[in-house]
């Protein structure tokens, strides 16, 4: 039933906007999801990496729905040379608390989405712009348990808090486009069980730096470069047994490749079966004036007694597509020191680390506009990793009455890993409205079960947006 409800939610949003399709000038998260998150397509979701582009995506409203998990988000951007944006329940680029929970085996500790984002951008002259963003998210849960022990009231629960700051700068020239951004995140959490602080953490701030550039090579091709560098901190302390751990995640990844515009122009056909490409209007005008009795300069000439040829004008709707492809290179590592264990046992400081080299990787995406109102999308990514780890990563310390420490025996591991991902979607646009949907990947291998409500559904994500001038 839940799957059926999720599917009906996405289909209902599609049907609600069935008569209104979107403008090609703006896009949504469903669009980026269908392109497998290719960074070489301009999109308003770029503002979270590059706040300086906010002024290029103004005057639009977006509503989004996701089927797994069942959730949604909304955003509004307004302005001109000065722009403001409000975003609600958008997914975080880095889920630091979720990574901390996974690393140490903590339950109910995750903030995958930001409660609210406030952003502002300003144009500096004709070619430059800057932007700033503030994000906030928090969760709180508590319970008071009554027991028969001497401590009748025992409190249990958890609280989390994330605060994020983004800064950005963008440059637009005739043959060059450059975007820069930096993000700093502060995280804090505490978990209490029966009045005992089970775990808490307020690590050093995490940060990420982003860069992207487009350099025009000719009328239809650009060289595109995307770079991201991130350093995330995952810390934990357990006051009850005086133990702690501090780990850091480091990531650097670059994508380099072409961005190609593919355009098939409109054609005209005149009475003598000659066809011309759009832009050759002078030839079409010659034929029109010749057949109507005028010469090219508009002077009347004697009309021929012969029958005028019938002139027809046929238009083949243009196909405009953008293809991007590139080589991925990168490195990521996770490591730190660990002193987790029951206080009654001797503390052992274990240095642990795991790393992976991304070489090579490949990413490609295609977006094609058909007949002005329909857009199809496809994205594919392949990554090949060389992994190396020096030991098993830590877990949350065992209870104080445990006979064994929470840490495992250190070891080493080397292996290769191949990771593939792909996505596809469709969009409709008309008079400023845009409706985007990204398909559930399994429907291409298992078929859509959206009628019966079984997995997989038809759409993984649906976005409805409207842009105005």
Main pleated sheet: 16 strands, antiparallel, barrel
Total beta strand runs: 19
Helix content class: under 10%
Structural class: mainly beta
* Total helical segments: 5
Q: How much beta, percentage-wise?
A: over 45%
How much is the average pLDDT?
77
> What Rg, in angstroms, do the CA atoms define?
29 Å
Separation of the first and last Cα atoms: 42 Å
Structural domain tally: 1
What are the segments in which pLDDT stays under 50 over at least 5 consecutive residues? 1-26, 268-303, 343-350, 396-410
Shape: globular
Along the chain, the helix and strand elements come as HHEEEHEEEEEEEEEEHEEEEEHE
Q: Strands of the biggest beta sheet: in what spatial order?
A: 1-2-3-4-5-6-7-9-10-11-14-15-16-17-18-19
Structural commentary:
There is one protein chain. By secondary structure, this protein is mainly β. It has one domain (2-265, 318-467). It has helices at residues 2-16, 29-34, 96-104, 281-292, 443-446; strands at 60-67, 70-79, 82-91, 113-124, 128-146, 153-172, 176-193, 196-201, 206-216, 221-238, 243-264, 267-269, 275-277, 319-338, 350-370, 374-389, 413-430, 433-439, 459-467. The strands form two sheets. It has a 16-stranded antiparallel β-barrel. The protein has a two-stranded antiparallel sheet with strand order 12-13. The chain is globular.
């Amino acid at each position: 039933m839940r799957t059926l409800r999720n599917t009906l939610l996405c289909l209902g949003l599609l049907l609600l906007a069935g008569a209104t399709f979107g403008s090609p000038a703006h896009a949504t998260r469903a669009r980026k999801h269908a392109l497998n998150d290719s960074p070489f397509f301009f999109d308003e979701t770029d503002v979270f990496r590059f706040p300086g582009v906010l002024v290029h995506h103004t005057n639009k409203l977006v509503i989004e729905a996701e089927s797994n998990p069942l959730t949604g988000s909304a955003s509004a951007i307004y302005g001109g040379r000065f722009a403001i944006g409000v975003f609600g329940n958008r997914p975080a680029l880095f889920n630091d608390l979720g990574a901390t929970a996974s690393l140490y085996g903590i339950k109910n500790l995750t903030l995958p989405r930001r409660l609210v984002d406030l952003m502002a951008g300003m144009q500096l002259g004709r070619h430059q712009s800057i932007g700033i963003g503030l994000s906030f998210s928090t969760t709180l849960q508590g319970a008071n348990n009554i027991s028969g022990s001497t401590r009748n009231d025992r409190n249990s629960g958890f609280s989390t808090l994330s605060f994020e700051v983004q800064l950005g700068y963008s440059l637009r020239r005739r043959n060059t486009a450059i975007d820069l951004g930096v993000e700093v995140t502060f995280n804090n959490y505490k978990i209490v069980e029966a009045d005992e602080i089970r775990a808490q953490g307020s690590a050093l701030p995490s940060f990420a730096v982003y860069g992207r550039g487009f350099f025009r090579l000719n009328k239809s091709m650009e060289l595109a470069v995307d770079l991201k560098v991130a350093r995330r901190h995952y810390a934990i302390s357990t006051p009850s047994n005086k133990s702690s751990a501090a780990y850091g995640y480091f990531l650097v990844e670059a994508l380099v490749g072409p961005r190609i515009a593919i355009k098939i122009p409109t054609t005209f056909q005149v009475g003598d079966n000659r066809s011309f490409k759009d832009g050759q209007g002078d030839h079409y005008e010659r034929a029109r004036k010749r057949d109507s009795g005028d010469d090219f300069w508009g002077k009347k000439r004697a009309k021929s007694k012969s029958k005028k040829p019938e002139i027809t004008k046929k238009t083949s709707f243009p196909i405009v597509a953008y293809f991007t492809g590139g080589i991925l290179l990168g490195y990521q590592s996770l490591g730190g020191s660990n002193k987790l264990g029951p206080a009654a046992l001797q503390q052992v400081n274990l240095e642990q680390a795991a790393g992976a080299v991304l070489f090579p990787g490949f990413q490609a995406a295609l977006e094609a506009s058909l007949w002005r109102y329909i857009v199809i999308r496809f994205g594919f990514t392949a990554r090949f990793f060389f992994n190396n780890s020096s030991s098993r990563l830590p877990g949350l310390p065992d209870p104080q009455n445990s006979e064994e420490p929470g840490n495992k025996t250190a070891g080493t591991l080397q292996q290769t890993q191949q990771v593939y991902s792909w996505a596809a979607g469709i969009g409709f646009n008309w008079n400023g409205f845009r409706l985007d949907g990204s398909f559930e990947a399994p429907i291409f291998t298992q078929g859509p079960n959206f009628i019966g409500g079984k997995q997989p559904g038809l759409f993984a994500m649906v976005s409805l947006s409207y842009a105005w001038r």
